[in-house]
Amino acid sequence: DAQFPAEKLNYMLKDSACRAVISDLEQTDIVFSGQWLAPVQLLNQHYKKINIPTVSKHPAYIAYLNYTSGSTGQAKAVVVGHDALAQYIESAKQFISLSEQDVVLQFATANFD
């Protein structure tokens, strides 16, 4: 979320050992201008065929990190594995009963905890 304070974003990037960022140009400029991490600009461009290395897959491997709000101090990363993400998606599908014709309105940012 580009609206987060720069210090919080820098902390999360360093803490997570993030090596790449996929963002739109506007967000990249706001968040990462002059920072230690070189952003990867992919959105709104013509895609070129690139060689992507094969990555080992395992259900327990990390799918994403969700940082806590840090209300009691420094934000902490919560590790979410592919297995937990898949289970969450399956549960949500059953609970919400979405079809291909449905549209979902979300007010919170995708990274809101």
UniProtKB/TrEMBL annotation:
Q: Which Pfam families match?
A: AMP-binding
GO CC annotation terms, alphabetical: cytoplasm
According to the entry, every stretch annotated as the AMP-dependent synthetase/ligase domain falls at: 1-112
Domain of life of the organism encoding this protein: Bacteria
Annotated GO molecular function terms are: phosphopantetheine binding
Q: Name one GO biological process term.
A: amino acid activation for nonribosomal peptide biosynthetic process
UniProt protein name: AMP-dependent synthetase/ligase domain-containing protein
Q: Which organism is it from?
A: Pseudoalteromonas ruthenica
